């Protein structure tokens, strides 16, 4: 659930420059970070792609430091920092899926090897 909230925050970032009325460079930053946050958040919401959640730490860090590096107006600064901190807090939530899907690469050359019982044991 927290990753879908980050996806919604990414959509908000894309709309924020028009809604809050600020321009470049803050608008450009939000229009780049917004789709990244949304896409990664959406994909990390599913068990099998949960490992992608760590990519939103970079997006969140950028959103926190960008206002001072690029000189954002006040509204853009507050918006960027709040969403950046939320991304830094919510991104690590959840564990990757430990189940195996589709038999892995072995399924390509061993027909019928689609369950974990049919696959060779992994070390470690």
From TrEMBL:
This is SPW repeat-containing protein. The chain crosses the membrane at residues 31-49, 61-91. It comes from Amycolatopsis arida. It comes from the Bacteria. InterPro entries: SPW. The keyword Transmembrane applies. Keywords: Membrane, Transmembrane, Transmembrane helix. Residues 4-91 form the SPW repeat-containing integral membrane domain.
